[in-house]
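Wait, mind explaining this?

_____
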Amino acid sequence: MLPISALIRGGSTVWTVSPDDTVLDALNILAERNIGVVPVVHSGNLVGIFSERDYTRRVGLLGRSAKTTLISEVMTENVQTVNPDESIDECMQIVVSKGFRHLPVVRAGELIAVVSANDLLAQVIRSKEMEIGSLESLLSGVGEIT
């Protein structure tokens, strides 16, 4: 199976917030960029992640103000990360077993991407379709297994 780096587009921007930003700042990024999570970075290091789920459970349902609540107060800490060489299968196992929807990719301590469970699933499906096509070709006597 391909490494997770195969899903990462070179030069793409990873939108982040600081622990000192407000929840409203993060919500604006989520809405403007049509994304579900935003990594929280301090001094170049990933220190957490803030998601729509964090907002719902830790801000909205508790009646807190998005304008005054800091990301550091409501972010998910101790985020599981993967390196770009991890296989897509390994990453899929992580998101399924832990119920994650997003997985930060870190190389040498630097956040380089965030992949979603949907990204992983789409690649697994493409890979399985290619396998099926190769097997069908082999069975029909037309091709070889690739």
